Amino acid sequence: MLDRLDKRILGELQKDASLSNAELAERVGSSGPSCWRRIRQLEEAGVLGRTVRLANQALLGKSVNMICSVRMRTFEAESIAAFERFIADETRVMECFSMSGEWDYLLRVIASDVADYEQFLMHRLLKHPSVASASSHLALRIAKYETAIPTD
After folding, report:
1. Are residues 74 and 32 in the same domain?
2. Is the pTM of this model over 0.85?
3. Nearest-10 crossing angle of helices 21-28, 4-15
4. Range of the domain at 18
């Protein structure tokens, strides 16, 4: 179970993972060695994953966000595994959720423009043998985007 100091450390690291250990310790009111040990423990427990830097999608020429619902042909384990491997290898797919309800998967796909997305949809996704159909929705803009998980 996480204590208050662990939660403060997590909160600060989720805001800025580039903080030095000394800066982090000062912000959370702890010593450097204690912070370092706690971070290592949080990593070993799987609470903290890899450290990344968030890139500006629009400045990288990928300003289109499509929300794509996918219906599967079959639910055989090997078909599901093949589809999920395919999705894992697709760099345009930023998120993939296995869903309950009418659709089987929900994807967030980035593209440079609608034609780029159409290329992915028609020549990659719908050609996959496990996929029966898909429905796409163009996101007009991102109203909220967060990466930090609340610790309260």
Report:
1. no
2. yes
3. 130
4. 4-44
- DSSP structural state of residue 73: S
Per-residue pLDDT of the chain in tens (152 residues, 90 and over written 9): 899 999 999 999 999 999 999 999 999 999 999 999 999 999 999 999 999 999 999 999 999 999 999 999 999 999 999 999 999 999 999 999 999 999 999 999 999 999 999 999 999 999 999 999 999 999 999 999 999 999 98
107 domain residue, yes or no = yes
Question: Over the range 135-151, which residues count as b (16 or more CB within 10 Å of their CB) and which as e?
Answer: ebeeeeeeeeeeeeeee
Size (the chain), residues: 152
